[in-house]
Structure of Autophagy-related protein:
Amino acid sequence: MSTREPAYPGEDTRPTSRRELLGFYTYSFAAEVFVVCGLGAFIPITLEDLARGSATAVLASDHTKPCKVHGLDARGAGANKHALQQCVVRILGNEVNTASFAMYTFSISVLLQALVVVTMSGAADHGRYRKTLLISFAVLGSVATMLFLPVTPGWYLLGSLWAIVSNVNFGASFVLLNSFLPVLVRHHPDVQMRRGRASEQLLAEDDEVSGPGFNFLFSYLKTISIVYYIRSPSQPAGDLDDPHASDEPLLRDTPASAVLATEDTAPFAASYSVSSPDMRLSTKISSYGVGIGYVAAVIVQLLSIAILKSTGATLFSLRLVLFSIGLWWLAFTLPAALFLRPRPGPPLPTTKTGHPRTWSTYLAYSWLNLGCTILRARKLKDITLFLFAWFLISDGIATVSGTAILFAKTSLGMAPAALALINVTVTLSSIAGAFTWSTVSRMLQLKPSHTILTCICLFELIPLYGLLGYVPAIQRYGSFGLQQQWEMYPLGAVYGLVLGGLSSYCRSLFGELIPPGSEAAFYALYAITDKGSSVFGPAVVGAITDATGDIRPAFWFLAVLIGVPVPIMWFVDVERGKREAMALAREMRG
């Protein structure tokens, strides 16, 4: 098989093999369960129960009475009033509601995750550290999740630490996984054949793992994920980690990437359009990965429900579920470690004195590159408007998820198995939403911006429905306005339906506004806006809960948070944005 000469020292120019693709898919299968099952369901309620069960926890309504009865032990079809009462603990001299404790933990973890993601992105795209860092972060995150098992209420702050460590490492590991995608596409035999380089089949260099078992596993993983690939032309995603985030290296743009400026090795983002064969292949691979990840999440959710049912749904049951999630993450990381090649990236340019770059240079490069992108984005009115709207939309998506789970647990007294079933409902409805929105948009001939506005308006119904619980007539009726447990399931379906539309069409619309040749850097800004926004909403909800002693008042904040992006998105002019982007691209080229 013929391959081109390396464009830089250490470049691996071998064609992408099934072995590598299996490694890519396997890590999605491993790690996606953490964000969907862990962060989306069990970590928030476990943190709340750990704090509630601590010796220092007292009733918010009467500080002389401890929270003696543990929420899980008292919960069931006839959960008693005590299980639904709000509890507080003192942390650093401040009174913190046990539900707020989980929200603050999430805010801190997202802030640190965003900082780590930006800081290490230079190492993800350059040098030989890509695979080593991926496996290291995966092991640290999975082990931290497993360490929930021995945590007792007396050490509830340790549970918060493990949640932060696991979320930070998950985010960092997925950035590193995303950085593999453009490399896998660039060296894919189909791409090399189109560029005039002879290639054999994708089976190249699979000898050591080929055979009936390997071929069955590879085909099976592709089959179970195919639903995600056929859902729409723009390939929507349904999670904290959009599959399109893997279309580009997180932070790569000129001038550092100029070392790749040849026909064969030009920065991937600058070399294709949305409709190009390379982009379609990238979308196909990334969507397979996301589909596989969501299938794993559904499997683990069902296993978690079985664990909860068989062990009595105690606090130990929740910790055992988190241990299982961490074990799943770790176990399926091992095949990824075996199958993925290191695939070193181009080195950063040497210093003026000719010395190689140090680790500090990699760290500084990432922040400088992000800063340059922000300065460019300020020149584009419509991208600025869009990113502001996306900041609020993304924050709303993350905040509603955590708030709803904790509200269902503390205010409605729902059992852990019932909470897990809500998450399954959300996941399945997000798949349906991915099909539905593309079909509805075609039938009604909606522009992407109109589809986004429709999704936001539908999303707004969730907090507004919760606020109906303040209407006296509805209060007396005893149903609707989130007064009964069954109401969480249709709302979960609405949330999933909206999630499928927003994640896909926001990504698609943003792509229309990017200056040609700067896709990687601007998608990096998009990803950082997504991750960084989730710091604020949960913190505000936590503060409201602390101030009022109840989560329901936070629905007022959520209604505003979700509603504000509507007028902002309305003023985004896609055609004007395209013209400004083209003008900036010409200016950058000189």
In short: The CA atoms of residues 94 and 204 lie 61 Å apart.
